[in-house]
Write a structure and sequence with these properties.
Blueprint (H helix, E strand, L loop, with lengths): L10 H27 L23 H23 L1 H6 L7 H20 L7 E4 L3 H25 L1 H4 L2 H8 L20 H11 L3 E3 H29 L1 H8 L3
Antiparallel strand pairs: 1-2
Length: 249
């Protein structure tokens, strides 16, 4: 094993690779919150569509729906396929393992930004809450979703989640070991980040048909992803994970 006090050659490109993925991901989440909130008075300087306004193409609602479903499918396929052990072993085996997570995050950024840049709004109203305490309560739930997402990422370890910890271990010659996360928010929730995302996409006082399509698509993705993720955790941690999962709702 390399001496931990002497970084590996070309450490700077590796660190730049993962830190740029981290920065782009942070920028995406800011954009995604604005995208979902779809403020009525959004300024002309905002470069992207929102879930209810804008759009790069002039198409009808059916064509818009097909485009949006394709974008949701692209996101789900990228997130799910690249996370599978067989994909890592066959496709990503040629790169140092420290680059695996950073590559996943870079491609996730591409899929997520494609979702908001190419999104075609379908503004037909499904429900609307205008003013009053209920409107305030829905916006509070919306904000709570993103707070839960952030706290879930913090509880998991943002460095582990976005590939920073893996790269730091590699460039210093240390072995990276992924641990089962059971502390902080994971004491009460089995999947806090999924809970946060679902709360964020469903909690809106103005639900359009396009927004509803996105919420349903992301809900379907979460339900599928949880099944595979829990299977991977059982394969990795066995009885330790099963005992922890049994104690959680």
């Amino acid at each position: 094993m390399q001496n931990p006090t002497h970084p590996r050659p070309r450490a700077f490109p590796g660190l730049l690779y993962v830190w740029s993925a981290f920065a782009i991901m942070c920028a995406f989440w800011v954009c995604f919150v604005v995208f979902l909130a779809s403020p009525r008075q959004i300024g002309p300087a905002w470069p992207f569509p929102t879930v209810d306004s804008g759009g790069l193409f002039e198409v009808g609602p059916w064509e818009a729906g097909l485009i949006d479903v394709a974008l949701i499918t692209l996101f789900g396929a990228q997130h799910s396929v690249m996370a599978r052990p067989w994909f890592k072993q066959s496709v990503m085996a040629s790169m140092p393992r420290a680059y695996e997570r950073g590559t996943y995050v870079h491609l996730a950024n591409a899929a997520l930004f494609a979702l908001i840049i190419l999104w075609q709004p379908i503004p037909t109203e499904v429900w609307s809450v205008r003013g009053g305490l209920l409107d305030d309560a829905v916006w509070a739930a919306f904000a709570a979703g993103w707070i839960i997402l952030f706290l879930g990422a913090w509880s998991f370890g943002i460095g582990d989640l976005l590939g920073l910890a893996q790269m730091r271990a590699w460039v210093t010659g240390r072995e990276y070991c992924q641990k089962l996360k059971t502390g902080r928010l994971y004491r009460w929730l089995r999947h806090p980040m999924y809970v946060g995302v679902l709360l964020g996409v469903w909690a809106t006082p103005r639900m359009s048909l396009g927004h509803l399509l996105l919420a349903l698509g992301l809900t379907a993705y979460v339900l599928i992803a949880m099944r595979y993720e829990e299977g991977d955790l059982i394969a990795t941690y066995g009885s330790r994970y099963l005992a922890w999962r049994t104690a959680r709702p």
